[in-house]
């Protein structure tokens, strides 16, 4: 008994202090993501919740559904439909051209220097938007733009059937930043195609077209659809480029993002409650798009991990 008591006494004397054991239990690696969560909460989560709450409040601070009911106005519905059509068209154009460019720099066998230059340019061009992009297109395709004057001198009056400041002008402008984004998103998926799959298809007698039809495209399809949904959301949420092109007049009938800004900044259209409801509708559409993108992304990763 005396020996057991002495052993317990020695064990108790060598136990580390409680402060040291508590320090060991703290996982300090989470400290690095604290600024990220604070940023998301301050600039995304809190504004989103604020918009959702203010969509159901009138000027007196009382609950109302008038703001949501106001979304049924023809002007607002047309702006939503126009934004959706512009986003779809620019996403499809950017997806097709971006897929071809991504294929050329990955599977097409272009030199490494060209590949690096293309990917570097895409990294810059994907973030080149807003007012600078609009002014660049105005200087090129505006009524007095360089390309417009060159076509006019050749006997091709561009502005008889086209206008940069209308529907198709915005589609072309948006396509500029959609192409590099498609390249950046789809390049990893194309690089994930294994050579063993192509060699196995060729050993079984499949042609190149059959390989792409029955092997490569089914594997790439989730990545392609996910990239297209991301391009759609990217165009649907753009505001500065469209505002610089069409301003506050025709733009209010064309793009919903410009119409949202008009509800807070102009005297004739000012209605903060309706503006919050418009933004809430955009959040719902973009939320559905992001959900589809995430689902497609998980399916693509599942295929490429096999």
Structure explained in plain terms:
With 306 residues, the chain is mainly alpha-helical. The protein folds into 2 domains: 28-64, no CATH class; 65-304, MetI-like fold (Orthogonal Bundle), CATH 1.10.3720.10. Helix content is 74%, strand content 0%. The N and C termini lie far apart (62 Å).
Topology:
Elements: H1 2-14, H2 18-25, H3 34-54, H4 66-69, H5 74-106, H6 112-125, H7 130-141, H8 146-153, H9 167-191, H10 195-203, H11 208-236, H12 240-246, H13 256-265, H14 272-304
Examine the coordinates and then state which fold CATH places here, giving the name of the CATH topology of the largest domain. MetI-like fold
CATH class of the largest domain: Mainly Alpha
Structural class, judged by helices and strands?
mainly alpha
Helix content: over 70%
Overall 3D form: globular
From the N-terminal CA to the C-terminal CA, the straight-line distance is 62 Å
Count of extended strands: 0
What is the string of SSEs from the N terminus onward? HHHHHHHHHHHHHH
Contiguous low-pLDDT stretches (5 residues minimum) are none
The CATH architecture of the largest domain can be named as Orthogonal Bundle
Question: What features would you highlight for this structure?
Answer:
306 residues; mainly alpha; 14 helices; 74% helix
Q: Quick summary of this structure?
A:
The protein is an all-alpha fold and 306 residues long.
